[in-house]
Amino acid sequence: MFAAATKNFVKQVGDGGRLVPVPSLSEADKYQPLSLVIKKRKCLLSKKSKFASTPFTLKDILEGEKEISAGVSSYQLLNYEDKSDVSLNGRRGNQIINDVGFDVAGSDSIAFKASFGIVTKHEVEVPTLLKELTTRKINFDHCLVHQTRKSRMEILCVVMESIRTTRQCSLTVHTGMRGETMRFHIIEDQNNKGRDKAIVFPAHTTIAFSVFELYIRLDGNFELCVTPIAKGGFEKEKSGSSSMNKLRRLKHNLFHRNKRIVSIIPSSDGYLEDLFTDYYEKAASMTDLSTSYLREGAHARINLLNNNIPKGPCVLCGMGSSKRETVYGCLECSFNGQKYVRLHAVPCFDLWHKRVK
């Protein structure tokens, strides 16, 4: 019920899409200004980002013990009273059924009544906060930072504003069947009043909030993403070090898998370094048959199947067994007494002719 009411509130108030409805009454106190929340990126199965509360504030993940002095301003936003009659048919109806939180079997409509009264808006003084944070750094040893950094699907965010109630509020839900001339036709075998459910929650309950994402650099400095187009997350390590780690792992596997082939190539260690560096610099797909970067005068690459030569592993890297067996190669080169060589289209064909020919 609470989730349905807060979603409806955000939908009607709008605020350019920045407002996020509080999903649970039990977590409402965790969405206060300067609190930290985790934003889970959109995925194929979800069109909207999801937010999860944390027990921490921005100060908790900063180095040092200095408190954040930026103030929070408050003012009355509006007086909110809502009555809605919603059909349970369709996709939106299924979502409402989940949000309501009780059995609505036998009903095709729900009547909501949300009485929030006067709600107030509490927002951080952004210019003061930005000025103060220029000398602060993120503590990478903090458990929340450490765990979020491991995930590519999560972003740390800071709550910058919250909307709260000012008095005790009530939510009421009535379910029943739509009638032709009246709002509800009551199901007689249940009771003569339909089914009702009501909850009351205390004053100063947060019902919506908005956030700024954090963009955290490798040296601990960070930025608040104050514009909608700015994206948060962690700065990625330079591609060079990451690529070299991948090269070392691939080289290690290649040596153990193909010692026989590697042994015939002079300067094999430098060769493998050039092989994989060349591969990543050209960013070529293993299925890409482009020859635009092959040097002039190279042997022609052909489909061996057209010459009655069966599939087999690539003579250079040794990979290509089972379903990925190599079908391309060269008829102008020979190997192990055979008048042809099997070579992956990219990059093995070109690299073979650079080093072996």
Question: Can you describe this structure?
Answer:
The chain has helices spanning 2-13, 90-100, 126-133, 143-150, 239-257, 259-262, 268-282, 348-355, and strands at 20-21, 35-40, 50-57, 72-87, 109-124, 154-165, 169-176, 195-201, 206-216, 222-225, 233-234, 302-303, 328-330, 341-342. With 357 residues, the chain is α+β, with helices and mostly antiparallel strands. Strands 1, 2, 3, 4, 5, 6, 7, 8, 9, 10 and 11 form an eleven-stranded mixed β-sheet that branches. Strands 12-13-14 form a three-stranded antiparallel β-sheet, with no helix packed on it. It folds into two domains: 2-234, no CATH class; 239-355, no CATH class. The protein contains eight helices and 14 strands. Helices cover 24% and strands 28% of the residues. One of its GO terms (biological process) is pexophagy. Pfam families: Gasdermin. One of its GO terms (cellular component) is peroxisomal membrane.
